[in-house]
Amino acid sequence: MISSVSAPAKAPRGAHRHKPEATPYVDLTRSEWSALRNKTPLPLTAAEVEQLRGLGDVIDLDEVRDIYLPLSRLLNLYVGATDGLRGALNTFLGDTVEKAAQSGTPFVIGVAGSVAVGKSTVARLLQALLSRWPEHPRVELVTTDGFLLPTKELQARGLMSRKGFPESYDRRALTRFVADIKAGKDEVTAPVYSHLIYDIVPGERLTVRRPDILIVEGLNVLQPALPGKDGRTRVGLADYFDFSVYVDARPEDIERWYLNRFRKLRATAFQNPSSYFRKYTQVSEEEALDYARTTWRTINKVNLLENVAPTRGRATLVVRKGPDHKVQRLSLRKL
Fold first, then answer.
1. pLDDT tens, residue by residue, 178-193
2. Cα–Cα 20 to 30 A to 234, which of 32, 101, 240, 271?
3. Which of 209, 222, 218 is nearest to 122 (CA)?
4. Would you say 37 and 65 are in contact if contact means Cβ atoms under 8 Å apart?
5. Would you list the DSSP string of 255-301?
6. Measured in Å, how far apart are the chain's first and last C-alpha atoms?
């Protein structure tokens, strides 16, 4: 006699599907992100965007509307929420501290990413867009180039081939600069860097006076603090950020953008008799490009892979570009 065996119960639909891996970020496509701008008006003209665009960067009004308007709206909400938290703190403190100590301090935004990825354009666009919001008209932008060690100091330390690496900056001075602004000092100054002479400009200083928002742009702004000689952990630059953006792309795309930018600079800024790089206009284009490729592969790419890219996971928002320089996806850290 053959015994009957009942068929196994049918699994509920989707029961065997893998759940998406948990992540601290909300991942959004370009179209999903673009829809979040709500009804935020576009305050910039095509001519203004052209002025803000970096050499070799491909950005237009559509990119501003789809990517940077939603970001400016998000940042405006963050600034407002921070003001609300400040009000809660002041309610808690009551009259136990002076009113001056309870006043607002600048909202600080960090913008990080590789050489030639377009982070300077992102920083300038954010400055222009955020300053149009009535709640915070004073928006300052500072690049970390001003805190590079002077050429003489780099040469003395054997660091000229490591320019842009974390050790080529006066990190203590940079952190102190942002800390003073975050503390609400009336006036804070920073050194000025010239890309023309490839060095710090002697005797010249940039002055920042109590901005509503400060944007700090640079390769290594998301680097964690290094332990001191006594082994104790120090406060790092990123510890003062209220929000941070990492501009991301594939290294092979960034290399292509870097070489294209070098070609354009060779035909323009490098022609200046005072330019540090004028010597590359005196040789053939192929010789000049060989130098640029070597610089990318032995310096900029190494710095990207060893120091810059590993900080991506510390950002509040990761903006991912495709081969055409257009933003394709964004990852926003959950709260």
1. 999 999 899 999 999 9
2. 101
3. 218
4. yes
5. HHHHHHHHHHHHHTGGGSTT-TTGGGGSS-HHHHHHHHHHHIIIIIH
6. 64
Tally of residues, the chain: 335
Per-residue model confidence (pLDDT) at position 301: 97
Strand partners, 319: 247, 330
Q: 213 and 129 in contact (C-beta within 8 Å)?
A: no
Supply the DSSP symbol for 109: E
Query: Of the candidates 30, 35, 63, 111, which has an alpha carbon nearest to the alpha carbon of residue 316?
Result: 111
User: Which domains does the chain possess?
Assistant: 25-87+111-333 (3.40.50.300)
CB 148 within 8 A of CB 193: yes
pLDDT tens for 305-335 read 999 999 999 999 999 999 999 999 999 999 9
Q: Is 110 helix (H, G, I), strand (E, B) or coil?
A: strand
Cα–Cα nearest to 296, from 152, 161, 111 = 161
Long-range contacts of 129-133, Cβ-Cβ distance < 8 Å, separation of 24 or more: 129/43, 129/44, 129/64, 129/68, 129/69, 129/71, 129/72, 130/72, 130/75, 130/76, 130/213, 132/43, 133/72, 133/76
Reported pTM = 0.89
**CA 209, CA 217: separation in Å to the nearest integer?**
18
Interatomic CA distance for residues 314 and 306, integer angstroms: 15
CA distances from 294 to 56, 80, 285, 288, 290 (A): 20, 46, 14, 10, 6
For residue 92, pLDDT over 80 is answered with yes
Q: What residue has token string 């950020």?
A: 241
Cα-only R_g, the chain = 24
